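Two folds, back to back.
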Amino acid sequence: MTSTAKTTVLVTGATGYIGGRLVPRLLLAGYRVRCLARDPRKLDARHWARETDIEIVQGNVADASSLRRAMQGCSAAYYLVHSMMAAGKAYRSHDRQLAEKFSRAAADAGIGRIIYLGGLGETGADLSEHLTSRREVEAALASGGVPVTVFRAAMIIGSGSASFEILRYLVERLPIMLTPRWVKTESQPIAVRNVLHYLVECLRVPETIGRTLDIGGPDIATYRELMDIMSDAMGLRRRVVIGVPVLTPRLSSLWIHLVTPLSHRIARPLAEGLRNRVVCRNDEAARLMPQPLLSTREAIDAALGKMSSRAVETAWSDAGAIPGDPDWAGGRVFVDRRETSVSAPAASVFRAVCRLGGNHGYHGGDWLWRLRGVMDRVIGGPGLRRGRRDPEQLAFGDALDFWRVVRIEQDRVVELRAEMRLPGIATLEFAIEQDAGDANQSTLIQTARFKPKGLLGLTYWYAVVPLHGFVFNAMLLGLKKDAESERTAAVD
């Protein structure tokens, strides 16, 4: 392929970390892009979603018929889908089956090539379960006869990436660390902007078709050295690191879960993979597609800069299925409904709601929310550390602490579904009604719903009800104050 003249390419995983950044760069390079998404609403808030050369289709990589439909007329297909579940060989089998379906559908649709981003690592029998799965996916994608371009990367450094967040939180929170032996393992990190360059540029370079290419930055460093680089970049004293050989991947993943925002399900395969040396074996990618490669320090500085300027494009928490509407039928549903009049337009109230959580907090009883977050982390939930991608804006599918945005209507409704560990299903809805007779007057209705599961669910509800009067009332009044303050500031 030597021309970018309105060539159509398919991107799966566009709601994820890499896919969400790849799409706008493909558009900028002159391609038409078709995105396959289980729930297209997750892409509504992307700045590129309404570009002329973008097409978003509903479908699932597990469904062969929707795959074939999405692939029709495409010259290339990006496979950016993988599981991050710590379920032994179960996730390996699941990923392999998905890749096989994708391969067959690509062959049926006449796709010219498949492009896959996998994991870097030495070959051989000692590969971790995680990296072994990536090798199996590579083979499965090639099984249908369509040429596959495989990129193998180690740690990807970028604002919001899982590996970067692990490194940042460990350094930020732990001046003294007890670590497994993997801190001495060598790695060759790469900046996310360099990864994206390779993913786009390979379409222009025919020599990359059917090739497996190792990609990495210019530096090779142990994880211990990466911690030192991160400490320096954050202006912190270098951390004291004590290696402890008894820390297994399972214990390491639980430790990462408690200290960082990442779930132990994601941390487990990552922790297992850290025992493998992940260094490029050749420089073919750099030779075929030359570009300035950021050093590790430059990549970390760039990521921290994106965070401080609130310019994080995508985050590791973006990916994943969004649960459907809760089935409220067939059981008792507890409701806590509160409302208040607000001397501000609906748009101001909506913006106040969208600022909820993260560093902004919950307008009262924040210590209770923090305590609940700690309890949730201890029992395996996301806790509060997951935070939010943007401090001001919310979009469908966004993670917000231990909530997920499952419904959002501009200036009207924000609905959150709890992803914390609960004996039931919980949602928190904010509905905004504009006063018909006064543009500067509106009503905010806050509704919490909980459908308990069994006796434990009933016990949980009645245990927390006494706190609702304080926590939910403080939240409602805090949102009112926030919205009215914004209006006052605008008038002044």
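---
second:
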Amino acid sequence: MRTIAGRYVLEGRLGAGGMGEVYRARHLQLGKHFALKVIAPAFAADAPMRALFEREVKLASEINHPNIVSVVDYGEDPELGAFMVMELVQGVPLVAEQLSAPMPPRRALDILGQVADALDHIHKCGILHGDIKADNIMIVNEPEHGTTARRRRLVQLLDFGLARRVGLDDEGVSGSPHYLAPERALGGPTTVATDIYALGIVGFLLFTNSLPFDGELRDLMTAHVEQPMPTLAERRGEPVDAAIETLIARATAKDPAARHPSAAAFVYELKTVMDMLDVGRRRVRSSGTQRSVEPQEIAITQLFEQSPFAQALVSTDGVILVANRAFAEMSGILGDPVGHWLAEAHLAHVFKNLMRTIERAPMVGRPVERRAELATGDEIVLWAGPTQEPGRVHLVLRLAPSRSAAGYRDSSELIPHS
């Protein structure tokens, strides 16, 4: 057995990629096992390739997310050259999950949602993955709540060999041809939109057990640019819910501007699709009953996510029905805001009469505005308007320059919106 850098013993080869080989390694002092990636011998003395390898290590080490494999060490071995050490993932590649039939919708949506969550996180870190594909996704069976009685499928996103910072110019066309966005095939840069396209292709694979296009490299690139994307129903050989078809079709649109504007927007639509299909329904705490999201809320979610303002649709008893990420952050809500009761959010401490405002807005029959001053000297403005559908209120939050002294001072009366 070979020892690397005097502290890692190689115990077997796990696989290989374009940049190097991956081994199962045991730390001599800790006795713990890791995955150790060594730069390919052909690149060990190549300065540009070493720079790419080091970039992969640096970018991957900056990310901390449950659906992304963590980098824990980096070093140089006198014989093998540069290496990086990652947590050892015990699972199976996503491609191994695809056997002879498409995945059931429940499993496919869950896996796709976890990949999208990971993608959303790295985009918010200013990093583009550049190589989202089934081969770079691992499925792990992880015990829940510290027990082995129940296990759930946990997705792990691997391989940041083609990752780059947002805005960094690409050096030629790179990435896996089956997942290559049309604009990349034409020589355009890696962007959030190109990662979204590849995510959509992964979704297509999960729902149909096939990739939309196949063939030689030139044929593949031409197909991404010119050929219409097949529907899921065509490939699956059976009807597919229209909401799922729309989700994947939007992510794989030829025009980047027609795709989801962010991985977060993709996640929002995916979650509303799950609710519509009765997959992972959310419980509304104010009544203890379950609520199914209406079909039109998919479109509302998309509009809210593209808005420069924090927006939400809430019930008159204060339960969030639809909201964008900005609203969740300004309200002090961690995670998915849908199903949250606003009375328990930080926003209710800023606006002492928040629940009364929500209850009374439909009675007033016109939009109303509330203001509260923050310690920073700015004001947070709450706009509440009735909707055409009874029992629902449209909320908008924004920051505005203070009109008075610092400190919280919640206006006590409803102010008609001019």
